[in-house]
Amino acid sequence: MEIFEDSLIVKLKGELDHHAAEEIRKKIDNYYLANDLVNIILELSELTFMDSSGIGLIMGRYKITSENKGELILVCERESIKKILNMSGLLKMVKLYPRLDLAITNN
Amino acid sequence: MKLEFLSKSKNESFSRVVVAAFASQLDPTLEELSDIKTAVSEAVTNAIIHGYEYGEGLITIEASIRENEIEIIVKDSGKGIENIEEAMEPFYTSKPNLERSGMGFTVMETFMDSLVVESKKGEGTVVKMTKQIKKVSDKER
């Protein structure tokens, strides 16, 4: 996790399922609130697996950033992850960029 | 094949990997394999979070192959689902406080070719899914 201006950048690696989601959620929220940040950028390109628990995690962070008048932004190039993002309908509310630098320069 | 394990969340990863390894004999594409892993993960997660909400129990996965189709059955002996129709609606979740997306059954339906859910209150739930794996000659390789 790193901070860029008022945004928290989280690079997720490995598998994001129900088991992993609980710990990741706590870490992100603690860091986000402790540092008084506004936006969250979730980088998903290095995830090798994600199921609907990941969708729940993203929806929850969308809620938190909205409450703080911020934005949640996703970065992902991997097709398998994009497939479940697409079917969830999340991309109607959340911006998705293929690369982190694009997410930063466009926001 | 048959696999039986305790309803602990750390077993989610291992159980979907076992089914994927079994499915690999059909020579699936990476996308087909990922679809199977995701569907299994959804069924197992449901059994853990909902079926065995009040205490750990055993989850059984049976998988079989007929020609180019894999059938996967995920069973628990947990509390069961009272209203299956409602549970299968997209975005329905009985646990919004846990940040569940309510997409589990929708993912299984989308990523597999067929999905049948049977459940009896107090007795458990059986999720039966099938997926056709396209033959190599039909694939663009």
Written account of the structure:
The complex is a heterodimer of chains A (107) and B (141). With 107 residues, chain A is an alpha/beta fold. Chain A has 4 helices and 7 strands. Chain A has a single domain, classed as STAS domain (Transcription Regulator spoIIAA, 2-Layer Sandwich), CATH 3.30.750.24. In chain A, the strands form 2 sheets. Chain A has a 5-stranded mixed sheet with strand order 1-2-4-6-7. In chain A, helix 1 runs parallel beside helix 2 (52-67). The longest helix of chain A is centred in the first third of the chain and has 17 residues, at 18-34. Chain A starts with a strand and ends with a helix. Chain B starts with a strand and ends in a 9-residue tail after the last strand. The longest helix of chain B is centred in the first third of the chain and has 22 residues, at 30-51. Chain B has a single domain, classed as Heat Shock Protein 90 (2-Layer Sandwich), CATH 3.30.565. The mean pLDDT of chain B is 94. Chain B has helices spanning 11-23, 30-51, 84-88, 104-111; strands spanning 2-6, 58-66, 69-76, 114-120, 124-132. Chain B is globular, with a radius of gyration of 15 Å. At the A-B interface, helix 1, helix 2 and helix 3 of A face helix 1, helix 2 and helix 4 of B.
